[in-house]
Amino acid sequence: MKNLLFVGLALFVFASCKVSDSVTADNQKTFTDRLDYDRISKPIDLSNKRTFQIISQTATSKDIRQLNTIFEQKLLENGFREVAENPELLVQSVIASINFEKEELGYSSGVGLTGDTPYSPAYQVPGKYGKVIFLIQDSQSHEVLWMGTGTGILTANGVLNTQVLKSTLDELVAGLK
């Protein structure tokens, strides 16, 4: 009888263990809607170089294409001009990120549950945490003249958070006049 109780207890312990392949964010921590940014540039004056071309590859992800478009718009707003031939600058964007899941409290209007009760079922929200890198290179020497990075939560509801990226990029390209 003792052996049967021991085996039953061991099975209960093993069955209650859960192994997860994904990272889950802590509910108690709050996530900010901003990226920590850093600007890395050489003391080269970019005012004499006003034309650029976006470096694009055929097999780029939707997120990279979206980043390139945002970067292109910011450069155009700051007086740069995009050209197809003989640009002075080459421009590109890169994302290095990992996927994570954040547990959110669910809200249900089911029987017995009202909107803001803590008894509503929780659900997982996917996201990406990582670094966005914006580069400007000299088209002749391919030397990096300017680089800006943003680190933090890159997605909102599974989609690239363009509002946060635009405000971060505004801060980064402010000195490129």
Secondary-structure blueprint of this entry?
Layout: H1 2-16, E1 24-25, E2 36-41, E3 51-54, H2 62-77, E4 81-82, E5 89-105, E6 122-138, E7 144-153, E8 155-156, E9 159-160, H3 162-172
Parallel strand pairs: 1-5, 3-4, 3-5
Antiparallel strand pairs: 2-7, 5-6, 6-7, 8-9
The shape, in one word, is elongated
Question: What is the total tally of β strands?
Answer: 9
Please identify the structural class as seen in this structure: alpha/beta
For the termini, the CA-CA separation is 82 Å
- The helix-strand sequence is HEEEHEEEEEEH
Helicity level, as a percent range?
Answer: 10-25%
How many helix segments?
A: 3
Query: Averaging pLDDT over every residue, what do you get?
Result: 75
Summarize it:
It is built from three helices and nine strands; from the N terminus they run αβββαββββββα.
Structural commentary:
This protein has 177 residues and is α/β, with parallel strands linked by helices. Helix content is 24%, strand content 35%. The chain is built from three helices and nine strands; from the N terminus they run H-E-E-E-H-E-E-E-E-E-E-H. Strands 1, 2, 3, 4, 5, 6 and 7 form a seven-stranded mixed β-sheet that branches. A two-stranded antiparallel sheet has the order 8-9. Strand 6 (122-138) and strand 7 (144-153) form a beta hairpin. The longest helix has 16 residues, at 62-77. The chain is elongated. The termini are far apart.
